[in-house]
Amino acid sequence: FTAAADTIALLVGFSAGQVQYLDLVKKDTSKLFNEERLIDKTKVTFVKWLPETERLFLASHASGHLYLYDAEQPCGAAAPQYNLLTQGEGFSVFACKSKTPRNPLLKWAVGEGALNEFAFSPDGRSLACVSQDGCLRVFHFDSMLLQGMMKSYFGGLLCVCWSPDGRYVVTGGEDDLVTVWSFAEGRVVARGHGHKSWVNAVAFDPFTGAAQAPQPPELSGGEEEDEPPDPLVRRSPAVTYRFGSAGQDTQFCLWDLTEDVLYPRPSLSRARTLTGSGDSGVPGLPRSLSRSNSLPQPAGTGSARGPPPDVPPAFSVGRFATLTLQERKGPSGSEKEHKRYHSLGNISRSGEKPPGSAGSR
């Protein structure tokens, strides 16, 4: 965020823990925060300005800590001391103990292991953090309250992004999946297969789904009760959101998140017994998914890790053709490794179903 044409501020985080402030116009302006590594000795994983601010920025570290800095304030000559401000499930927030303003202004301890990335919601009110413990945590930034939480299928989460309207959060990580989580409903909407290794980056298309928020389709009684439509001739659902993901498998995958995934029709639960083809199948989203990986839930129940591999939920198989918790298996059903399946490379423009893409069970 730049206030004038004669200044372009840039932040750079270093593997040794320092954060450098540079001005690309005023090239003699440079500051180094955490220079002596008294604040944090671990590598900087992500840095970002607070939305529409001139001075405040956040820096996350491999220690799992997130620090709020003021670019106009100095760092102390000694290691900072902190007072606990608030804490909740899996996080604590501390304020720097000092008679005069100094950096860091706040310290957040989030989850266990590295805090890999964070992102502000489009309205700037909520902060989504993904950690090495496999948890997505969403906070109301000003009040420092936990608004929602989600667990990965397994492994750490590495990247996070908000949809342009702030309704959904997509994450990627060491489970080789992209996961779409509904902020409003607090549940996992879908998981996407396509990568063969860790997913490092995710980003929504800002020009799709941002202008008008999708509405659940209105279902008439006659259509659903008297003459249920044939799923084999149903028209393809309109694209609601699009996003991309990049992984350590060197692949860049593009995804369409459609209304049949976001708002499945309950009356089409019979479609569970059908094998979807291209844009045809629209099975209902099972209740088990909404509870499988979305928190808050009672601690220690183990339910946050999702359903066991031998009980896969059914998903829609529209253009978001790889949305499923587990790929469709052959008669033996013995294979459980999702990363052997690469489905996007064979998707054609005609909507032809790629070999090995998921169908409903």
UniProtKB/TrEMBL annotation:
According to UniProt, the name of this protein is DMWD protein
- Output the lineage of the source organism: Eukaryota, Metazoa, Chordata, Craniata, Vertebrata
Q: Which UniProt keywords apply?
A: Repeat, WD repeat
Q: Does the keyword Transcription regulation apply?
A: no
The protein's matches in SMART domains, at most eight in alphabetical order, are given as: WD40
* Entry-linked Pfam families: WD40
Could you tell me where the Low complexity compositional bias lies? 283-298
Ranges of biased composition (kind: Basic and acidic residues): 326-338
